[in-house]
Write a structure and sequence with these properties.
Blueprint (H helix, E strand, L loop, with lengths): L6 E3 L6 E3 L3 E6 L5 E4 L7 E6 L2 H9 L2 H6 L5 H14 L2
Antiparallel strand pairs: 1-2, 3-4, 3-5
């Protein structure tokens, strides 16, 4: 039997994709928001496509706020955007 591929929904565009195709954003137990490249860290995760537009959409639609049930300052989005850019280089 084929192994089931874990699917996740992008908080930006709402598309379902396999976990491997996505980037995990993590809320640590200390309420810090970080990119989890390994996908293995402890905490509440939300998923984004690897497109920058999805990060912008998530910002606009407050996708992260909904996922983590907390308000997220703009600095966090700026930091995530910088980390995103580093990934695409």
């Amino acid at each position: 039997m084929a192994k089931k591929i874990p699917m996740r929904q992008c908080i930006g565009c709402g598309e379902m994709k396999s976990k491997k195709e996505m980037i995990r954003i993590l809320k640590t137990p200390e309420d810090e928001i970080i990119l989890d490249i390994t996908g293995k860290k402890n905490g509440r995760g939300a998923y984004l496509c690897k497109e920058r537009e999805c990060l912008a959409k998530a910002h606009k639609s407050k996708g992260l706020e909904r996922s983590f049930k907390m308000s997220i300052p703009n600095e966090v989005y700026d930091k995530l955007e910088k980390e995103f850019e580093a990934l695409h280089e």
